[in-house]
Amino acid sequence: MKKLAVIGAGNVGKVIGYALKKKGYQITGAVCRTDDSGKKAADLLGCPFYRQPELAAREAEIVFLTTPDRVIEDVCVLIAARGGFRKGQVVLHTSGAHSSNILSPARQEGAYALSFHPLQTFPALEEGLRSLPGTFFAVEGDEESFAAARDLVDALEGKMIFIPTEMKELYHAAACMACNYLVSLMDMALQCFVLMGIPAEKAFEALSPLIYSTLHNIKEIGPKKALTGPIARGDFPTIRSHLAKMEALLPELVPVYKQLGLYTAGLAVRKGALNEAEEKEFKTLLQGGFQSGR
Ligand SMILES: NC(=O)c1ccc[n+]([C@@H]2O[C@H](COP(=O)([O-])OP(=O)(O)OC[C@H]3O[C@@H](n4cnc5c(N)ncnc54)[C@H](OP(=O)(O)O)[C@@H]3O)[C@@H](O)[C@H]2O)c1
Fold it and tell me: What is the pLDDT of residues 111-162, one digit of tens each?
């Protein structure tokens, strides 16, 4: 039975800790910033609650540092200074933004550093547990920790991809675009519908078949072939009319619309749907050639 510590038993720590406990891992201790949250997590994970992270870490073979990104390094420094790490231990964090290098204080104690990022969103326990099977974990760090990473991923019923340490920021930028910026794009589309008097829930229902079939097409045939619409068709007057209406009603959406339009024109050229002269015309329109008249 593998022993693991959950330092930072919030959304991710509780979901992963709970799922691993169900698969036979023993949790040596839960640590939070506040006592209330720590005690609740310890109840859930069936383990002691510690105020000092080094006490939970010392007992464990695998130490999860699942605190917010901004304190991972400080917590790692603290545990190392208090003798919580040891040779051969695997110390991991689940941050998408940081590489395993922020765990160097653990490395200096002979532990193996691993970044173990679930490409998933965990808003709360139930939703997190539901979405865990099939989740990809992006792994990077000391090779000696990869066997433990494989065991964890198997126990979580996930899948694993390796990424180069020096590309971690690019990896995270991609994940932000695929998740957070998709949310923002959907919010922009919903705002337009709401302005027409269609409530947001109804609007999403109406847009859903379009959204899901687009995602399906991207998966099946890739973004280039999946691209349709006025830019790919070279319909300049249509884009001009979108801009005019948005300038009048939702001007805050116009800069994003223009930037994405410019990117889309480039994609349409790669697709072979637009020639370079047409792309140039779109560029003039979208780079500020449009006059709002205001
Ligand atoms: N949530 C997601 O969707 C998601 C997805 C992928 C990766 N991640 C990554 O997973 C990590 C955890 O994210 P999360 O969403 O689970 O965060 P979270 O829900 O805010 O939980 C963070 C936990 O860390 C505790 N904590 C804060 N400062 C601490 C300290 N100095 N010492 C010990 N514990 C401390 C908090 O305690 P209190 O409860 O007492 O404040 C809380 O329990 C982050 O690296 C994040 O980037 C998150």
Answer: 999 999 999 989 899 999 999 999 999 999 999 999 999 999 999 999 999 9
Task: Give 146 Cα–ligand 1 centroid separation in angstroms.
Answer: 23
* CA atoms of 60 and 26, how far apart (whole Å): 9
Mean pLDDT score across all residues of the chain: 95
| CB 25, CB 3: distance < 8 Å | yes
* CATH number of the domain that residue 59 is part of: 3.40.50.720
Residue whose CA is at the smallest distance from ligand 1 atom 28:
33
- Domain span holding position 179: 171-289
**Domain total for the chain?**
2
pLDDT at 1: 76
**Residues listed for the chain:** 294
Hey, whose CA ends up nearest to atom 21 of ligand 1? 10
Side by side, the strands of the sheet bearing 136-141 are 26-31, 3-7, 62-65, 90-93, 112-118, 136-141, 159-162
179 and 159 housed in the same domain: no
In a mutational test of the pocket of ligand 1, which residue from 15, 66, 75, 99 has the highest number of ligand atoms less than 8 Å from its CB? 66
> How is residue 48 annotated by DSSP?
-
pLDDT (mean) for 260-274 = 96
Residues 17 and 78 in one domain: yes
- 208: CATH: 1.10.1040
How far apart are alpha carbons 170 and 269 in whole angstroms? 25
Same domain, 191 and 154: no
Q: Does residue 76 or residue 292 have the better pLDDT?
A: 76
d(CA 187, CA 190): 5
115 close to ligand 1 (CB < 6 Angstrom):
no
